[in-house]
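Known limitations

Structure tokens in this collection are predictions and should be treated as such. Users comparing against experimental data should check residue numbering before alignment. To illustrate the layout, the record for Protein BatD is reproduced below. The input appears on top and the generated tokens appear beneath it.
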Amino acid sequence: MYRLRGKILLFTIISLFVGISSYAQDEEVTFQMNLSKEKLGINERLRVEFSMNKDGDNFSPPPFEGFKVVMGPSQSISSSWVNGKRSFSKTYSYILVPTARGNFTIKQATIDIGGETYKTLPKTVEVTAAVDKPSDQKNVDDVADESLHLVAEVSKGNPYLNEAVTVIYKLYVSPDISVTNYRPLDNPTYNNFWSQDIPVTRHTAQNGTYEGKPYRYVVLKRVVLYPQKAGKLDIEPLSLEIFVDVPTNRRDFFGGRIYTQTSKTVSAGKRTITVKSLPEAGKPANFGGAVGDFEFSVTATKKQLNASESLQAIVEVSGKGNLKLFQLPEPELPSALEVYDPEHEENIQTYSSGMEGKVSNNYTIVPSFRGKYPIPSISFSYFNPSTAKYVTLNSEEINIEVLEGPTSASANDAAGTNTSKQLVVPTGKQFHFIKINPNLSPIGINYFFGSNTFYLLLFGPLLLIPIAIFSFKKREAIAQDVVGNKIKKANKLARKYLSTAKKELGNKEAFYVALEKGLHNYLKAKLKIETSEFSKEKITSILLDKKVAPVDVDGFIDLLKSCEMARYSPFSDVQMQNDYEKASTVISNLDKQL
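Generated tokens:
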């Protein structure tokens, strides 16, 4: 009897699970469109929801002819288990407002579920004249969406290369709600731009208008951009999560309106600007990439001094423009003057209109001979975007007079303008006295036996035995250090391919040409292919196929991009040194992996 009852109970449980499983497997897929109403006034809003009981992909809404989408799509998912039965629901919601009166058909929406395409049935909506009291009520999310707008204001949509562009991010807030806090979700990276953030110290709300309606706005972020490439450049969007208090229709005991808190994600949207190339017509031969409005001067702290004293020659550019993105011209100094490497000084402030201030190179000069030395006039050229013309400024000639000091036999030649430096012997050390008393002492004969040399030759070979043993073990340890030998070999290989680039440090064009050639020659030697004929995408694909780490691939491609950018934008000596060191590291890493 008990065995029979047990079998019946077991059969019942199995049947229950089989029934639940078959029900879950045989559940029919549903995909339908629901309207909040089928008849509404032209001043009312329509909520359209597309619901499904199984998750799908490639959702495509209808075109909503006769309506304007004011919000959506917003997505909601519900999943639960009740008595062993799984319930799933996914909904896409839109808020529409009619654009005219009449009968309009909301056509089919489509979605892919389980490899099949499902469609909703079309529905007709009647739009009548405006009603006195619209029946549809906005929820908290509706109010927040309509009351928050993040806008990116761009000062110039069509600037010149290296001309300042200011982007100001403003958050417009309706007077109906209040913002409690915010946090950034995605900050733009400003590719192909030199960027400088302008700190916003106080977020002060100001009155303004947005789409003709009164709003309050606050400036959240300011950034100054200098485009480094001509053509269409994208400014990536800024995304924020905003926490707001939204009023409801409920009131408290004292009659005050009750607020509820919600959060919304807002984005400034992607902006595209068109950057104009600098004109080739009228471009001076000495143009170094300066764009703005500048003043130029070359001054000396002294014009009369004695030999072995020092003076400073100051080459200075001041004004408004890309002060950090070009190199100062070098003065042509007489070869008889001893000149030290210049000290670079910057006094630059960045405002909403761009960079302002001055940059200078201070050359320390020490004359060794008496005479007059002219510092010839030098020129500085820049492009003024306001007038769309190139401007060339010339400095005044400076005459340096050395009053006291030795006279050089080639004094006349020393006053020439040859820029090559010559070794100058400091004053006071041109002559040395010959010693009259040599302080010699007689030496004897037959002093070898018993001398220090005798004992050194006698016991020296014995001392060399432990040194030889130690040296042998050291070489053996080095030979067994496989990783260390690979690193040394990789570093030696990097120096081989970058030797030409290292010699050209300080000469931008020659350096980056040699650097790019060295990078391509390295891959040519390692991979037996002509990489100069490949694009950066093809080189990336080849290196990734060779199992090279992505970070090293990105470093290699970044160096190739720097070589390309160097053709149309100025690079400092510090940037060239950094690129050289980065190239050495990247080649070493690639060689260890290839």
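For this record: The radius of gyration is 40 Å. The mean pLDDT is 80. Please report discrepancies through the issue tracker.
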